[in-house]
């Protein structure tokens, strides 16, 4: 049954909200932004057709305030809600409340969000769909149980202790010695309760030299489900991605087909609709892959899939929410370019400490093969209350070498940010590292090469510009007008 979306409230901020607004504008759908007090001059507020203040700075009082967001949607005449990524995007209670309020939810069904939000439940579904999972304990009750499991299953260190309800790299600890198990178990349990309101803990064998491969899925309400190929998301800091690419340099065509169709089989098993991602951990030593989790939302890195396939994933999400059928079959989807994304965070590139304040200068890269997803503008402030990412830089090329070269140009020649520190020097160092160029890396790449990466930073300072001007003035003063003038 088709339902017409007339106006969309975007329950998010920054890059995420602006990205959804771009597609809504293309589809001639008006948008409403929501904002907290420090975000009143945010780019997402300026980019929307209307905006509603929903609370003070802390997310619990604004972007996690379900009542205020739903009230804003109803008050401004919206009949649909898109949650973006982060905040309430994977909250099944919010999804259900949106539907119960008579609004259209642009995303998967609440019951699917609920099932996949619990890693233990998701692993049960994976086993049912005959998808390989990492050996582990689904609901560890004590650290003694972990020790017993390791003995019984002959599991060697390291192991990974993680929150069942976790996500975004939070609530995870790698353990390498028996004497650290108790502390890790207690710490993760406590963090899980504090961050996610659920203290269930699962334990898994830690895959050394693992690589993160995720498969983008799109599915309609009529049983049509397609993959849009895979993304390599292995380059991470503190379990959070900073560089992604598609296709993955880790996979050959046979393995690519296997991992993509495994993801489709899994999503069909759970009755998935809308856009979503199945994450796998790939062991490059054994050439085996294991199910990790499902992200029941739009992914930050969806843009590289859009650039390489020519599809608009946000537009497809809106069409599916309106009850439309997918306009293509699996055989119609092809990747015709290589694409790389870099996340630009306002952080010190040497130690990842947050860097907040006003962006006094912002020069954005342009040119062939570059796409920018902005979340801020020159003169805007980066507030200390939210995620530090304020821009996505995406490059595309005929092959991987071409895409890397284009991203190098974007970061080294096209991008200039002053007023806050960014991780741009680190991103550039990674792109130029021989191991990255050859495709030899794991999730530990940054921690293993950090000193080396930092040593290759090219420090740039606003004083450089002042010195250039001073040298120019001195030259003219001393030598008079030059021939080239």
Automatic annotation (TrEMBL):
Domain ATP-grasp: 123-322
Classification of source organism: Bacteria, Pseudomonadati, Thermodesulfobiota, Thermodesulfobiia, Thermodesulfobiales
Single GO MF annotation: ATP binding
Organism: Thermodesulfobium narugense DSM 14796
Domain Biotin carboxylation residues, every copy: 4-451
Keyword entries, A-Z: ATP-binding, Biotin, Ligase, Nucleotide-binding, Pyruvate
Alphabetized PANTHER family for the sequence: CARBOXYLASE:PYRUVATE/ACETYL-COA/PROPIONYL-COA CARBOXYLASE, METHYLCROTONOYL-COA CARBOXYLASE SUBUNIT ALPHA, MITOCHONDRIAL-RELATED
Top-rank lineage group of the source organism: Bacteria
Assigned EC number: 6.4.1.1
Enzyme class, UniProt record, top EC level: ligase
Name of protein: Pyruvate carboxylase
